[in-house]
Amino acid sequence: MNDNYYFSSQITEEASAYRNHKLKNSSKRKDYIGNLDSNGYKHGFGIEQINTGGKYVGIYSHNKKNGWGKLYSNDNDEVYKGFFGDDKMNGFGEYIKGKEVTYYGIWNNNKQNGIGYELWVDSSKYCGEYNDGKKEGIGTYLWSDKSKYEGEWKDNNINGLGIYYFPDGRKYLGEWKNQKMNGYGEFHWTDGKKYCGFYREDQRDGFGLYYLLNDSFYIGFWQEGQRNGLGKYIKGKSIKYGIWKKGKKEKWFKNEEDFIDNLESESDNEKFKSIFQWS
Questions:
Q1: pLDDT tens-digit map of 108-163
Q2: C-beta of residue 105 within 8 angstroms of C-beta of residue 115
Q3: pTM exceeding 0.70
Q4: For residue 10, what are the CA distances in angstroms to 16, 24, 64, 76?
Q5: Is 206:221 a contact under the CB 8 Å cutoff?
Q6: Residue pair 186/204 in contact by the 8 Å Cβ criterion
């Protein structure tokens, strides 16, 4: 079948759905049916076959897409329904890509920009801010496994301050960098345990307080998720000072004075002296 004949039959059907639009000064071009201005430019309602193989049905102003319209990909798998400005998607619009993803929200120069809502085929969803086509600003993402993140985004990644809820009930509140816990944060377990301290690349790293069960907790240093360095272990009224290496206790100090002397010998640890003494 001739492609132009096929296209003409398609756009004739589309045109019948817009009977309220009067096609004055209608074009005779094979790739366009619609209104023209006195200079022969597309102006008003029209239907056009795009040179990439897609199709546009909507409003033109001085030869450019301006106003409400629909833009179809060449295989109709991708469809945008919404507002255009200066020949680009600008304003509120809905974008659908097959059964994979649906987006409702604000567009600027053909990119998601502003507040939007995105839904994926596996029921994952995001509601929040976009910038230049990427998730950026404040937003909430709900995954199909029921895990959820509420907080800041940058360049399509979790970045800044936010709360992540795990499917099993655990949660993390704190700083993030490139999708990972990084900086200061608090991690809460469902059984009551809690860690308040520093993270690096998703692992406890730096100074932190680890609240255990049965009225006990650990205050000290961590590295790559394990206790590493000087620490203080408290259980009820019992207080012990020690040093750990890769998660294992190497020794207990005789008393607090001996522990503080070791603490002061490392300049990086000096700033935590008051916390150890207070606790």
A1: 999 999 999 999 999 999 999 999 999 999 999 999 999 999 999 999 999 999 99
A2: yes
A3: yes
A4: 10, 20, 22, 12
A5: yes
A6: no
